[in-house]
TrEMBL record:
Residues 435-504 form the GH3 C-terminal domain. This is GH3 domain-containing protein. One of its GO terms (cellular component) is cytoplasm. GO terms for molecular function: acid-amino acid ligase activity. Residues 219-284 form the GH3 domain. Residues 1-25 form the signal peptide. The keyword Transmembrane does not apply. Residues 318-391 form the GH3 middle domain. It comes from the Eukaryota. Keywords: Signal. It comes from Pteropus alecto.
Amino acid sequence: MLLLLLLLLLLLVLLLLLLPPLAVLRQQQSQGPRWSWLAGLQHRVAWEVLCWAAAWQQRRLEQSSLHVGQSQRQTLRGCLKEAQGPRCPLTGSTDMTTFRNHLPLTKASQAQEEESGERLLPPTSNQHHGEASLQATLLGLAALNKAYPEVLAPGGMACVTPTSPWPHPLPWPCHALSQVTHPGSKAPGALLLEALRSPGLRALEARTAVELLDIFLGLEANGEKLAEAIAAGNPGAPLPRRAAELREALEQGPRGLALRLWPKMQVAVTLDAGGQAEAVAALGALWCQGLAFFSPAYAASGGVMGLNLWPEQPHGVYVLTPGAPLIELLPVKEGDREEAAATILLAEAQKGKEYELVLTDHASLTRCCLGDVVQVVGAYNQCPVVRFVGRLGQTLSVRGEDMREDVFFEALGRAVVQWPGAKLLDHGCVESSILDSSGGSAPHYEVFVALRGLRNLSEENRDKLDHCLQEVSPCYKSLRFRGSVGPARVHLVGQGAFRELREALAACPSSCFPPEMPRVLRHRHLARLLQSRVLS
């Protein structure tokens, strides 16, 4: 009986291999029911394979998360074995002390790298191939299907950026599932055009939220050209009607645009990484109002750090899993890293505490502080469940005040609420020494903002940010009172300024973008780019 089932499975897989790609089958469905039947069969087989692979990964996660200490010790021994060489063989125990002695902790802060001016190797693609990324992709798809059962139906999803938000490419034959567009082969404009031609979409994908924000801003700017391209793309009746629907949807403004274009849309899928929170907030308040947001994983500079099993959660929380790469946690004190503290393993994490992630890479055998700070909010078996707080490399400090990324963002949010009609789209910060803008006065922050709903900032509104910074940071307030730090200067930049910044970042060898979006700029040419686009 088992042999018969295996033969049947083999026949189904061979049939899937021999069938044309699913996208081709969809294009030929109108030619007759035969093609529609074949497309349906291909999708069903692909879905069964995905379910089997996800179930296997779920069992592996359950086993490893129930015995986190044992799983991490196995990974630790693997790292030590890789570090062992013919000239320095390891002897004795392979405990945490031995591990720390052979692989000392280094601090690879992006801020320090940028300040040094060193050219680094180009950042790896966000397709972090490996066991952790494959597990995050398979379990993320299964969780997404459970929360939104129709999303993975044929033609239910479209990716509008050349790179997918899923950390690992889907293994064959699962790539046949649901996609209307095929990332990696087309420019974002062409991918968006394909998505606009499919009114029945239930999920929209983009590599990161800031890139999805750029897509919607581009859609508004180039709406008429896209409508003309849709109308001219096919002489059939549905497409001219679709072009008219696009024009009508754009005329009603940005709020709720996604649901007007795709009435069945349920969720936007983007990869969570540093600096994405305000893009998610802007999209949720305007273009993607009414949609859920889901990130299958959290990507830090070292790769995939955590996987998301809860698409229904309004804010992403992630399971830190044992296995390769080895993740340690470094306790963080109020305002800064605790230099004297030793790292702990995942099983020792305490709920409510904040930790900096430490990653040991098997390939380079480096054990680095990533700068990403997490707070433990729960547990999955013995694994900590965390939310990401901010990045230590994105700290502002002109007089040693150490204004953390999350603290600054809180102050900026308080200020924007007091700017009548304004919605924050993007921001970037520069310490005045980078632009030589102090002019003999006290050092200060230069803050560049992109807004919707407000075309000019009065001096009174600009001053509100400095007041909010003093509210959230007693140290900053004390320095301002003594005159050691000058008031923050706020500049409104034009539309497209941050898109140009991201293009410049992507071309910069020392940049962490993509997927991380830096909010504190330490290269003068990047700061000058924003400065050149100031409106007021």
